[in-house]
Amino acid sequence: MAQLNRSKHVWARASAKQEKIAKSLTCHHLVPKSRGGSAGARNILRLAWDKHQSWHKLFKNKTIMEVLELLLQEARFEKKPFTSKRFQLVRWDKLQSWHCLFKERSSTEALELLVKMVWLKGYHSLSCTYVQELDKLKSEKLECTG
Ligand SMILES: [Zn+2]
Predict the structure, then answer these.
(1) Is residue 7 part of a domain?
(2) Residue 17 lies in a domain
(3) What residue numbers bound the domain in which 72 lies?
(4) Is 129:64 a contact under the CB 8 Å cutoff?
(5) Ligand 1 mean position to 122 CA, how many Å?
(6) What is residue 11's predicted lDDT score, i.e. its pLDDT?
């Protein structure tokens, strides 16, 4: 019994430790260092460790500009009616990573989220470009249903 309690205790401690690691904040470079990104605050996104892992599983070593472009492509794809393949990027093996980062959001909603994030980071013209693209997408959607 003591043995059982002990292993329970060890297990609880190990999972608490794992949880702590998963939630510990890491620095993600919006433009990767390997691709000329700086270490300045503007280029750093603080992400929980598990989200950071998920980011790179989904987006590899892409710059934030490339990620936004990819999501825009996906959002356009998503918009088209009668496409059974919801999302090229989210093959089932990547769904977990997607969910960790964006929960139940669609690619359009994920794009909106990142557009807000880059605005807050001070990339205003980049943000504006994608706000316009999102507006275009939404008005096209209205035309489709109306
Ligand atoms: Zn990173």
Answers:
(1) no
(2) no
(3) 25-145
(4) no
(5) 19
(6) 84
Catalogue the long-range contacts made by 132-141 (C-beta closer than 8 Å, 24 or more residues apart). Answer: 133/72, 134/75, 134/108, 137/75, 137/76, 137/79, 137/108, 140/79, 141/79
**Distance from the alpha carbon of residue 1 to the mean position of ligand 1, in angstroms:** 45
- The string of pLDDT tens digits covering residues 31-81 is 999 999 999 999 999 999 999 999 999 999 999 999 999 999 888 887 554
Residue 78 Cα to ligand 1 midpoint, Å, equals 26
> How many angstroms does the Cα of residue 44 sit away from the middle of ligand 1?
9
The per-residue pLDDT for 7 is 83
Distance 60 CA to ligand 1 centre (A): 9
* Domain-located, residue 102: yes
| Tens of pLDDT, residues 83-98 | 445 555 556 668 888 8
Q: Which two tokens stand for residue 12?
A: 């609880």
How many distinct structural domains can be found in the chain?
1
